[in-house]
Amino acid sequence: MNEHVLEGRNLVKTFGAGHTEVRAVDGVSLTIRRGELVLIMGPSGSGKTTLVSMLGGLLRPTEGRVLIEGSDITALPESALPQIRARKVGFVFQAFNLLEALTTEENILFPARLVPGGIADARKRAQSLIERLDLVKRRQALPGTLSGGEKQRVAIARALINAPPVILADEPTGNLDSASGQEVMMVLHDIARDEGRSVILVTHDPRAEDVADRILWLEDGEFRDRKAEHHQWTRDPVCGMRVDEWTANLRTTFAGQSFVFCSTRCQQRFEADPARYVAQGPVPAQDRRQEVQP
Amino acid sequence: MWRWTFKSLVASPLTLAMSIAAAACAMLLAILFEAIYAGEAKQVVAYLENADADVWVMQGGVSNMHMATSYLSDWKAHEVRDVDGVASVESILYLNTVIDAGGKKWFSFIVGLDSSSKGAGPWSMAEGKPMPGPGDAIVPRVFADMTGLQLGDIVAITDRKFRISGFSADTFSMGNTVIFVTKPDLEDVMSSLDIVSFMLVKANPGVSPDMLARRIESNVTKVSALPSHAFVANDRSMVMQMGVETIALMTTIGGSLAILLVAFTVYSQIARQQRELAVAKALGATNRMLLMSVTAQATAISVISVLVALLLALVLVPLTDALVPQVTLRITGSAIERIAVLGVAVALVASLVPARRIARADPVTAFHS
């Protein structure tokens, strides 16, 4: 069995042309092994989402190839890609992206209905995923009634329903509070470790580093060595979680001071009553630790 | 996929209900225009269809009754009667004119009857005598209801006054009002003697009306003879061609409105679901699947709209007949077929409108928070 589940070879993606051409991804190559959890990190606008979109068959690279289980998906016609996405790739999005009219169970089963004959085996798998992800009581609930953590667990179950070899998760904890985010992170970790699926995780969440097998640093569309000075750790003023101020993309300015957050939930809480958190004493800028990545 | 399709459709029940109501109203409009057309097409030739004739004979070159003028010397009736295969001949005098009744003017067909008339007079009476006497007029019941006329009241036909002696049933249409008087009275109105307008010919048993009509034309000079079905068809065509373009235009407007409304509903649905379409694409749905989903939604809206429109029509038609008796509505099988075809056309056109939007839904946008 080929242990290289996902390969990207010299991937380039450009947008625009002439003077306006932007090379969002510039000659990136990577290989992901079975059961590996790989983190892709980097500053905002570094090309992470573009890279993941190409790896998942959502976006055609301008140059280079993507191979899933040895099969070159970039050589396939456009019409073949939806089936590749349905069978080979599970997507987990920051915004959960559940289908609002469907219940938890129906959302989980949705990708199985896109695969010919897929629904027959999927029901049992759905049952098992519902139990495993602690969604038994929320089986018939509509997305609007679920908490953020529950929504993301439903999204993870949906990503797993067709038993794809690759899971691509883009900021899966970005809209969650710290406890739910931690929980989701551990689920993704277990998926890689216990089920042997390859998980690629795009995140700013530093906790993910604790569960990752490898960390790839993307900057200006290229993989680079992550330098120590690229981290400037501070604390989320709401939950107190460690946040990399340099890469964080959730920012709010209050009383002339800039604050960064681990999640939109914390940001929303802060913005609802900033004085409360400032009064409690967020870590002042001058006191922030300059943590160095080992 | 289908579950998602229909659950998405009913996710906003109020919007859906309003869309269906609007589309159903547009379709109902088309059905009612059709029904008016069909009702009038039937009613406008009611006299000809109910008159007891196998063949109609008239002045040479004339081929219908509505707005036509036909003069024949009354002795021609004897010539017609002598044609082989003719069982009987009954003559009527006929005048298109405007009558003055209830303070209004009404376009009317005045039929002058011989006192011996058997098959040319009113075929159904609502009230009063079935045959007019001297100075009498039999007018339609609906006409009387609209003008407030009673038995014994006076109506004016040109410069003559007539007393209403009976109300006939089923002799009113928006195109004409059939009024029966005696032939001598009508001759007096027309200042003419010894002429007839039309002859109602009965054929002997076993004689085909078509053949008899040809035989009359070859044996009697300067007359036209038409079998009853052809005469009725000519008259209907003559009357309806005046309104057919308007009715066709109205039906087209109704149909177009329905298409626009259903298309707008489906398009709004797609616009609302744009993000979900992108997500579905990212998860592996093809453009074809999504297009089928949208077509199914449009079909569901159309089918429900058609059914609601038909249901409303079934309620409204008898209600209209009762409240507005001067308008005859008739829903035919072909009208139902046409509205069903319209429903399918609405669904197809309405699903084609957002097809481009579906094709262009970018699955990468599923990553945008």
Radius of gyration of chain B: 29 Å
Query: How many extended strands of chain A?
Result: 14
Tally of individual helices of chain B? 12
Instruction: Give the uncertain stretches of chain A in residue-range form.
Output: 282-294
Q: What amount of the residues of chain A lies in strands? A: 25-35%
Largest sheet composition of chain B: 10 strands, mixed
Number of helices of chain A: 9
What is the mean pLDDT of chain A?
85
Number of strands of chain B: 12
User: Could you describe the largest sheet of chain A, including whether it forms a barrel?
Assistant: 6 strands, mixed
The pLDDT mean of chain B sits at 85
Portion in strands of chain B: 15-25%
Q: Strand order, biggest sheet of chain A?
A: 6-7-8-3-9-10
Termini separation of chain B: 24 Å
Estimate the global geometry of chain A from the Cα principal axes: globular
In quaternary terms, these chains amount to: heterodimer
Give me the strand/helix succession of chain A.
EEEHEEHEHHHEHEHEEEEEEHH
Structural class of chain A: alpha/beta
Write up this protein:
The complex is a heterodimer of chains A (294) and B (369). With 294 residues, chain A is α/β, with parallel strands linked by helices. Chain A is built from nine helices and 14 strands. Chain A has helices at 48-55, 81-88, 104-113, 118-132, 148-160, 178-195, 208-211, 264-272, 274-280, and strands at 4-15, 22-33, 37-41, 63-68, 71-72, 89-92, 166-170, 198-202, 214-219, 222-224, 233-235, 242-244, 251-254, 257-260. Chain A has a six-stranded mixed β-sheet. In chain A, α8 (264-272) crosses α9. The relative contact order of chain A is 0.14. In chain B, α2 runs antiparallel to α8 (228-272). Chain B starts with a helix and ends in a 9-residue tail after the last helix. In chain B, a hairpin with a 2-residue loop joins β7 (154-157) and β8. In chain B, strands 1, 3, 4, 5, 6, 7, 8, 9, 11 and 12 form a ten-stranded mixed β-sheet that branches. Chain B has a two-stranded antiparallel sheet with strand order 2-10. By secondary structure, chain B is an alpha+beta fold. Chain B is built from twelve helices and twelve strands. Chain B has helices at 2-9, 13-43, 46-50, 76-81, 141-147, 183-190, 209-219, 228-272, 274-283, 287-323, 333-352, 355-360; strands at residues 55-59, 72-73, 86-101, 104-113, 125-128, 136-140, 154-157, 160-168, 177-182, 195-196, 198-203, 223-227. The mean pLDDT of chain B is 85. The radius of gyration of chain B is 29 Å and the shape is elongated. The A-B interface holds A 49, 52-53, 56, 58-59, 79, 82-87, 91, 93-95, 97, 99-102, 106, 110-111, 113-115, 158, 170-171, 174-175, 264 and B 1, 3-4, 7-8, 10-11, 275-276, 279-286, 289, 363-364, 366-369.
